[in-house]
Structure formats: C-alpha cells, structure tokens
Amino acid sequence: MKPFLPNSTETAPYDNDGFLLKPVAVIEKDLFKRAWGHYRFTHYLGGEPTGNIGNIHILPGKRSAEEFRQGPYIEVVSFSDFQCDPVTGDFGGEIRLAYASNGGNRIPVTGGSISGNIKESQKEFYFSKESQTVNNFCGPETVYLMNANITGAR
C-alpha cells in the first residue's frame, strides 16, 4: 500500500482521520506480513495503525505476458461485470472480450463467463513482468491463472 502514486485520485499525505500515511508492505515474499486500515479498526485488532491507504502497488512477476501466450489459452481483455466474494473467495465475471488460441491462431471471443475460487486459483497464479498503472492501482499487466471455469464463450 502506497500513500503516493502519481496521477492517483487516492494519493494523500493523511487519511480522513488525520493519520499520517506511510508505505505499508502487506505481503512480502509470498507471505502475509500485516493488515492495514483505519486507525480505529487496527486498534481494535491490537495491530499497529497504518491509516486508510487508498493506493495499491503489486510487484510484477518474472515471466512476460508473451510467455503466458504459449500453448492453448483464453486471454480475457474486458469484463462487463466481475465480482469476488471476500469471505469465500468465489469469483465470477461476464466476458465482454477475450482472445482464444490453441497455440497458433488468436481468435476474438465474446460472451460467456468465468468462475472459480481464488483460494484454488492462487495455487497457480502468476503475474507478468510488465506493469500498468490505472488510477490507484499499479501492478502486473497480465495475470495468469489456472483452475477457473469458462463457459458459453462464442
């Protein structure tokens, strides 16, 4: 979590409670290190307060997006809706645009949906080494995941 991210609408030196914001490492080397949040809630949990930081920075992976495109794949470019239950980890999304490939031709695909569980998918979850910044998010351009179901794509 980073208080300052160029061109982000969430960049701020202080949160709404007046708490001075500093960068916070939530995950390091694939291990959860600490929670973050409003002063009040971290205090309730007995943790060190961090303030409510609105910018997310995820480090990139080691493989290129082009490496992910070797062999058969479906690359979802745009969802018309995507939701993830924060308690169960179940996710689902309606595919607006994707590309399918059998390792050769790349064919546009529309419609259909993707569903799964993040707890299962994260076992084979890889980030591309290319990064992107969109408002308050800075992170991998591409995420490669297994153990998801895709149905009804045309």
What structural category arises from helix and sheet content? mainly beta
Count of spatially separate domains: 2
**How much strand content do the residues show?**
35-45%
Over all CA atoms, what is the radius of gyration?
Answer: 18 Å
Alpha plus pi helix count: 3
Shape: elongated
Mean pLDDT comes to: 90
Major β-sheet profile: 5 strands, antiparallel
> Count the strands?
12
Distance between the termini: 38 Å
Q: Give me the strand/helix succession.
A: EEHEHEEEEHEEEEE
Percentage of residues assigned to helices: under 10%
Low-pLDDT segments, ≥5 res: none
Structure description:
- With 154 residues, the chain is mainly beta.
- It folds into two domains: 54 residues, no CATH class; 87 residues, no CATH class.
- The chain contains three helices and twelve strands, in the order ββαβαββββαβββββ.
Helix and strand arrangement:
Layout: E1 27-28, E2 31-32, H1 39-44, E3 56-57, H2 65-68, E4 72-84, E5 90-102, E6 106-109, E7 113-117, H3 118-121, E8 125-127, E9 131-134, E10 137-140, E11 143-145, E12 148-151
Parallel strand pairs: 3-10
Antiparallel strand pairs: 1-2, 4-5, 5-6, 5-7, 7-12, 8-11, 9-10
Short recap of the structure:
With 154 residues, the protein is mostly beta strands.
Question: Key features?
Answer:
154 residues; mainly beta; 2 domains; 5-stranded antiparallel sheet; 3-stranded mixed sheet; 3 helices; 38% strand
